[in-house]
Structures are given as C-alpha cells and as structure tokens.
Amino acid sequence: MFLERNPRFVSRLTRDTMAMILAGGRGGRLANLTDWRTKPAVPFGGKFRLIDFPLSNCINSGIRRIQVLTQYKAHSLIQHVQRGWGFLRGEFGEFVELVPAQQRLDQPLWYAGTADAVYQSIDIIQAHAPEYVLVLAGDHVYKMDYGTMIARHVESGADMTVGCVEMERDRARAFGVMRVNEEGVVQSFSEKPDDPPAIPGDPERALVSMGIYVFNREYLFRVLRHDAERQDSSRDFGRDVIPEAIRSARVAAYLFRDPQTNEQPYWRDVGTVDAFYEANQELIGASPELDIYDEEWPIWTYQAQLPPAKFINVPVSGENLPGMAVDSMVSGGDIIAGSLVRHSLLFSQVHVRPNSLVEDSVILPAVTVGQGARIRHAVIDEGCDIPNGMVIGHDPEQDRRRFHVSPGGVVLVTPEMLGQEVDHVR
Known about the structure:
The protein is α/β, with parallel strands linked by helices.
C-alpha cells in the first residue's frame, strides 16, 4: 500500500489535518463528579485530566492545529488547557484554541448536539483550510496514533471514517454500533441498540464506535449544513450525521489495532462512577494495560510545582505509627502521617492524618483524611475534608444515606455531601 511505500505520507496528512475535540458535555452518568466541572476536566490517573489523552494523542501524532469546543461548566477545563497546553508556536501555525459555545445570529442557542458544536465552528475551520478534519471525544482514555487512521481514510477513498473497537455485545448496548462489509465499508449504524449486530463470524462481539471521526473537509461542511436544515435532527453525530453519511456517501470503519501485535489496544469510556473507579484502580497494578510511563508516547499535562510525597512516623498513645503506602500510587505534595494507604491511588496534595486507613480507593486532589478515619472502596472528590473518625465504605446502608453509592458499590463523596464549602473551580 502507498502508506507502506511512502513513510512521509502520514506526516504530510497530519500537517493537513485540524482536530476538533468535543469537550462541552457534562457526563451526567459520573454523578456528582461533574456537578462543578465538565467531564473532560475530571482528574484521572493521579496527575492528569481526561482531556489530556486526546490532546496528547494529537501532539504525538503530529497534529498541531487543535480546537477544543467547550460549553458546560468549562472554567476548570479552560484554566487547565491555558496553563498546560500553551507551549505550541503560533508562528509555525501550531495552536490549541479554546472555542466556547457562541450564540448564532439566527437562533440564540447553546450547542444543540455534537454535530451542531462542529457546525457552529465551520467558519473557524474554513479560516485554517485543512484538508481533513479529525473529530474527537474529549473524555476517553487511550493512546492512539491518529496519523495511521487518517492515512487509511485517504487510501480507502472514504468521505468519512469512523474509529472503532471490538466489544462484547452485552457491553456494546451503551455505545454506537456499526455493521460493516468485507471491505470495511459501514453498512449501518445504530446508537445504543438493544440488540447490537454481531461481527461476521463472531456472534458474541460487536463493532463499537470510539467517537473518533475523520472527514474530508468539504464533505464535512456539506453533511453538517444538510443536518442543520433538517427540522427532525437532534444535531448529533451518532444519531443523525453518521446514518445520513452511510446513505449518501462512503463511510469506512477503522479498526483500532496495534500495528505490531495486531491486538486491540487499551481504550476506555470512563463515563460512569464504576468505570472511572475501575480505570484508575487498573493503573495501580504491576503491569497495567495503559502504560502511563511510556516515554515514546507520553501523556502531557499541566502540573503545579509541588514537593515530593512524604511518609512520616507519628507517635500515638506511646506507639510509633509509620506512614505507609502499599501497592499504591501517590503524587506530589502528598503527606501520609502515621497511617496506612493500601491499594489506592492518591492525587496531589492529599494529607492522610495519623491512625487512618485508606484502602481500595481513589482520592482526588487536595483531600484531607482526618485522624482515625476508615475509607474503603471509595472515590473522594477534590477538596473534601474527611472528619476525624469517619467511616466510609464499610456500611452500605449508612453510605447510601450520606453519599452516592454506584451500582458496583463504589462510594462517591463530595464536599457538598459533607456539608463543606469549597472552591468550585475544580
């Protein structure tokens, strides 16, 4: 194929591509974690935010023209991007631009859907005149070279290409599911179907959209304008644009695979409290599927200048209690004093007071765990001050009266649930 014969092919394509990252949604399935922040701004993995993964994938893929489309409670997201992603050089035509929802002249509305968000930015795309437009979700966790996908898009002669992964059919009900022919051309697309169509030859698995789309620029303009004229459209890529594209154009599927092993790489939609908890817990393992220590494909982010984590022995009632973290991940500015942290992930500036026990938990930044507290199987939101002696995750009925308990039994605690006032710029 041309891609294999010409190694410069991909770099030329990525230079001719603009990325549009959809970062305006609340993500209501994350419950109270998104009360004061948009889903792409939710912290992840000890030091990152979800938006860092698509942004890092763009930079590592050689895509240096990036628009981040914001809407719901975007201040912490905007602050994070401004602080951590301002290193590109404008004089070289490189940028990460924040594009807030803007009222249109014809209708004073916010974004009506994912497709409408990009439609309202057509003038910005036109001004930069890319050959290809890469549309990305701002809230998925994965590492991916978009250049390979764009090259396959061009080689296939498609007007639109949809990135996809294989998934068990029972899980696929929560996603957009595609049916493709032997040439990889999409024949149908259904959003969150009750009975997902199976992959040919594999009745237990389905082909699921990753929320990653490559468009030829002029075709994108044409299909979005057509969608904007339809009175019955919900202005959504999955529900409206993709089905229309299948009817009127050539839509290809790009199966996300490791080019060396042909295995499906890590990809997670951390859209629920249980999925968020599990994805963070996976990172604690000795060899997690998502390698955040990979120097060849780094995940970039903004990080404050903080001192190293500290573990302190504290005398309590004549006994010297060591500060320990076992089978855990800790971050800058953490202080674990005379307490035990076991199989947990601590974000930055977490203080665990003496005689406390934290196990199987995810503790977001700037949390204080009071003396003698017991926390298990929980997600503690940023800024919480856990009172001395409080017990979380040991009595399900008591937890349900005070906090949010997920279907999987994860206890989510926020400052508001504790009756505490905090800075809502999280």
